[in-house]
What we know:
The structure holds two protein chains of two kinds.
Chain A: H1 2-12, H2 16-33, H3 51-82, H4 86-91, H5 96-112, H6 116-125, H7 142-170, H8 173-193, H9 200-206, H10 211-218, H11 223-228, H12 236-259, H13 268-271, H14 296-315, H15 318-335, H16 349-381, H17 385-389, H18 395-427, H19 435-463, H20 467-487, H21 515-538, H22 547-557, H23 560-587, H24 593-607, E1 617-628, E2 633-643, E3 650-656, E4 662-667, E5 671-677, E6 680-689, E7 694-704, E8 721-724, H25 725-728, E9 731-732, H26 743-748, E10 778-790, E11 794-796, E12 800-807, E13 810-816, E14 826-830, E15 833-839, E16 842-848, H27 856-873, E17 881-887, E18 899-903, H28 921-931, H29 947-967, H30 972-988, H31 1004-1022, H32 1024-1038, H33 1048-1056, H34 1065-1072, E19 1074-1088, E20 1093-1106, E21 1112-1115, E22 1119-1129, E23 1132-1143, E24 1147-1154, E25 1160-1163, E26 1178-1180
Parallel strand pairs in A: 1-10, 16-17, 17-18
Antiparallel strand pairs in A: 1-2, 2-7, 3-6, 3-9, 4-7, 5-6, 8-14, 10-13, 11-14, 12-13, 15-16, 19-20, 20-21, 20-24, 22-23, 22-25, 25-26
Chain B: E1 7-16, E2 22-32, E3 34-39, H1 46-53, E4 61-66, E5 69-70, H2 75-79, E6 82-85, H3 97-107, H4 113-126, H5 142-153, E7 160-164, H6 172-185, E8 190-195, H7 198-204, E9 207-212, E10 215-220, H8 222-229, E11 233-237, H9 243-249, E12 252-258, E13 261-267, E14 277-278, H10 283-291
Parallel strand pairs in B: 3-8, 3-9, 6-7, 7-8
Antiparallel strand pairs in B: 1-2, 1-4, 4-5, 9-10, 11-13, 11-14, 12-13
Helix pairs in contact in B: 3-4, 5-6
Amino acid sequence: MQFFLFEIKYVLRRPIVYIFMAILGLMVGLAVALENFTIGGWMENLDLNAPYVVQTNYMIMIMVGFLFIIPMFVNGALREYNNNFHEITFSKPISKASFFFGKFFAGLVLGSIPFLGILLGFLIGVLMPGADPEKVGSFQLLPHINSFLIFVLPSVFIVGTLVFLLALATKKAIYGYIGALVFVVLTAVLSSYSSELDNQLIGAYLDPLGINAFDYITKYWSPAEKNINFVSPFNPLMLINRVIWTGFFGLILFVYYLKFDLLAVKDKSKKQKEPEDVESSDKAISIPAFKPIFTSNTWLTQYLNSVKINTKYIVFSGFFIIIIAFFIVQLFTGAIRLGGYGISTLPVTGHVVQSIIGPTYMFMVIILVFFTGELYWREKENKIAGIIDATPSSTSVHYFGKFTALMISLSILAIIGIIVGVSHQIYNGFFDIKFNVYFISGFIKPLLGMIFWIAISFFVQSLVSNKFLGYFIVVILFVIKPFLKVVFEFETNLLSINSTGSLRYSDMNGYGFFDSYIWFTIYWLLFAGIFTILTLNLWNKGESLGFFDKFKALKHRFSKKNYLVLSVLVGLIAGVGSIIYYNTKVLNKIVTSKEYTTDLANYEKNFKKYENVVQPILKDANYNIDIYPNERKFVAKSILSFENESDVNIDSLHFTIGSDDWDISFEIPNSKLVLDNPHYRIYKLDKALKPDERLDYTINSTYHTRGFTNNGRSKVHKNGTFISSFTFLPVFGYDKNAEINSKSKRKKYDLPEKKNRVAALKRNCSKDCMSNYIGKYSNWVNIETTISTIESQIAIAPGSLVKKWDKNGRNYYKYKIDVPSLNFVSFVSAEYKVKKDKVGDVDLEIYYHHEHTYNLEKMMNALKSTISYNSKNYGKYYHKQARIIEFPYGSYAQAFPGTMPYSENVGFILDIDKDNGDLDIAFKIGAHETSHQWWAHQVIGGDVQGATMLSESFAEYSSLMILKNEYGEKIIPKYTKYDVDRYMRGRASESKKEEPLYKVEGESYVRYPKGGVSLFAIQELIGEDSMNAAMKQFIDMYAYKEPPYPTTLDFIDVLESKVPDSMKYIIDDYLKQITFYDSRVKEVQLDSTPSNYNVTVDLSISKTWSDSLGNETNKPINDLVFIGLYTKNNEQDSLIDYRSFRLKNKEAKLKYSIKSKPYKLVIDPYHLWMDKIQKDNEKKF
Amino acid sequence: MENNKLILEIKDLSKTYSNGVKAMDNVTITIHSGMFGLLGPNGAGKSSLMRTLATLQEPDSGSIVFDGIDILKNPIELRKRLGYLPQEFGVYPRINAYELLDHLSILKGISKKNERKELVEALLNRVNLYEFRKKSVNKFSGGMKQRVGIAQALIGNPDLIIVDEPTAGLDPGERNRFYNLLADISEEKIVILSTHIVADVVELCQDFVIMNIGKVVYNGTPNEAIDEMKGRIWSKSINKGEIKRYEAEYNVLSKKMIGGQPVISILSDYNPQNGFDIQEPSLEEVFFNNIK
């Protein structure tokens, strides 16, 4: 007890606990108050202090708090030993328990106190000026208490045990820190293991900090639940996790206690025998009188020697070896597995390198922070500083020697990463290994990036008088870097510590243009130079100076040469900085997110009044495109033809110009510019356009990245430019899509509240349905394109190739669309190989990068199957060709008329081993995009809620049907399982509101996964024929028809006619409501008769409808439920019986018999229901 | 060589630490070739002076000139001719004697590999550690380590050798051997030895100073110093309870216990009678007289 009280009093009298508490309080307070800086899981529709937000703040701050927890235990454990006071203290009559547990529990209390800062942060944060009072819920203490119980106390206990024991066992503080680091790395490894859907529950138990358990419990929580619920320590999963881990560490603590001996101080030097001394005789041995010689060669010899001994020291140190070991473990277990969620990617070098450099960077930082401290203080700590400092060796020898040694050690780490990457490729039988990519992305880039950090870390160490303080400051530098960027809105890399433009590798585009990366790298290396000059003069020679004395000393230590070098460096920084500034801010623009939002707000305020202005309708578009990949230049001349389809005269033309990147000029005959705003222009026609009159004009759009940009990116790539007409054409009239949706931002900018993201769905939508959801004043357009590019590349636009020619060393192509289409046109240019095939009369073409031949068959197959299935079931394919075109970067695909650009990361390099159960995503994406040729490009919804259901959900449904048609129905649950999860997780992080499917607005988790599953479920219930008949009828009614465009209500009308009365409820459940089922198998029983197996099952079903925030109400049951029975063949489950029952009650007992013996029973095996808890849906017999 | 002419001139050296301690207060000493003793109690400022001479810290004011080099302005030039053995030193873990001396030779500017080998082997032989050259220096006994220390101080044939309290922690045998070594090398060089042990100075030094509370309080040769005291030191065996009284009455220089009985030595220009006997002065009395 006396140790406990003494320790607590001792530490509480010191400022450190309060400083830690203040740091946590400040971070949390700012996170609560500032909108663009969040720590926990705050979203716009949650209270600032919602219980879920409170708990996630605790959860995340525990990781930051490690820095605060460790010293509380380590310093306490070693206080007596460090002051060499232990022999005196322990000679007093004190008990082992009083010391051991006194110190430990003092650490537990002291390590927990700083976390009270989080509570303070919330209390203060909600009162700060940035915090919106309407978003502040009533203060609840319980979430804080529960967070202390589930996060703070157990984690402090666990981490504390670890570092406390390590410190006591080694009597060295540093081992406590290393132990904590190892613990963090191990935890990260465990987390990455449990990211796969099927492992998440195990992962929830495996995580000693309880983070995975918390995530598992809350992953499907709706915003409404997050505002009220919190995880209590008595949640069974959480309880088991916490008991397992605290119990485990408690046991370790106790076992160590039994073995612990107060006075046992480990002294290695005593263990080994000393060499016997011998009499020193008076041997008069003359010592050669070599005089020191100082030439430039001497410096080199000294430097190389310093490099050698310091490299040896780092590389053979336990810390380095442990870190390397963890690095390798981390790479093998987590990082290097590519993909996830049932999808894996081939180990192409670009992706392997990408997965390696994250851990490489992290471990490099750990090593450099640790060893800059170790190396700086090495002579002092070994008490040899006096001798070394009195030698005539210059500080630069030691500084550069140590610097180089550190760089060599980091190189070793990088090389190990590369070796692991290459072995991974070879192990997987992948031999297209690109060593140059490994060298640049995995070696040169990370090492160059570390130079600045090493320099600044040495500088910090040379400035402070304590190694640990140095560590602390350097770690803080890393931590605040992203924080500064957010809080001060440093959008330019000139102000963001050691940030550069990107150096991205793409198989197609290589490294593209990387001048931005080079310039910023030089810029930050120059700063490293400045820190070097300062460090060389601050370097501790001889006496230890106080902080202020150092500056005094600096003044007279600075030689003329130093001043000269320093001014040269400053001059160079100014020069390079100016060049960068000129390129990134003058030639190009950096729009901060604040400026951008302000622009949007002003745009809405000033021009909303033109929303309903009558404009002529686009009828013909003739694009003349010239692409100059090497000059990063794209020139588009769009000759457009319009018709006044209204019954009034149109006297002015309105344009919205969204992007600053394009120079846009108009050639409108007989008109005057009457409003010239950067984002809005009005041209007044000299003579008003009468009804039915035509008007032609031309728009010139040029994109040219002159010099280089801040992030190093350009829309035009060396190889693989993909630009759509939407990026360079102005929007005709007022652009509603540019309006700000965020509720708080609208409030901040004084904009009226906006209920829906798009216009409300209603039965007779006259005005809104006159335009489709992808563009106003444009319906079905005749499109022609003349496109040119450099000699080595092929340029592609939608439509049939009419003509091809060369001129002035450039390739020219003329394309013409076969049927009037949506004016949504893609222009692509790259070096391609082409794979061709045919289905019926349709030419199939895949334009691919020559290396990416892996999945061409599957993609071609998807084109064929989709065109066949959809033509048969929905109606004709109108284009003469269907193309897939590869483009670099990104991971998405888009459907333009007859033309589907695919990112190189989608489909082309997927690793699909169907025998191994991999999902055939290449096929599925192909089927989805190709289905858009019906759903979007034939029938497109009016610009109201639900429009994307008619395109995205329908395409998703079609892709499931085509998969089913291709692979059989049994394949479906593999896909729907992930869809259900994607939907549930998506809605859990919905920041505004969730709409039911038929009113879907922007929610991608509704229109894709939920849309596909829901339509597929309706198809299961009413039959494929009825469903497709409805869809065909819908196509017949609306394909390529002039407005008004259809809405989901029009489809539901068609669908209802195909749904028998007994099943009408499914329209509500799947389309009009947000419906959840909770089904559970209570009991299963199997009796066998000579001929049959009789199955008896007790089950319970409940159904709820949710509102847009996630508040659920119960609904009566009168539903069909599907039940599947499985056998097990060769470790594979196979469905042998699948039938439906109509249930009228929540509880039911079903009996039926089948022929072969089942092994388990599953409710809803195809995942047609949104059921939050899947694991209780099945039981084994 | 003309090392006989070596002169180290220390003038008006002052240093006050940030905690207010005056470590050196107008220290002025001129030192010639040979062994020079710097005597003083703990905290007298010896180490500050030694470290300043070894260019490891900077004084607030004053100057130091060695053989024409202003060492405060040009520390590197001095370091080229300096051998320094600090009061307490350690070594890198897991480094053996050979590697250590080799490393330090490089830092001292012996760049040629073959020269270094010859030099390091000679040094190891000279301090009789050759057969332990592959042993980790961390495991050496105090005396052996101190010999490594002196060996490194000899690298590069320095003209100025500074040894700071070299005998602390050595047993008498080790101490003797260490002094023999020092005496051998002190020819034609300046060797400055700082110590708080009076006997060290008597045995080894031609010249010496006594420092106390940052000031030089005596400057001369040991013999002169003792001569000055001749006939002025008286001693007497007294009872324990009487010390206070004697201290009030006489100029008591030292109190010793001899056979459990206090013996005091006092300074007096005439015979104090009262049972005092005349005592042959030693440097110890000089020391105590000067630091009072």
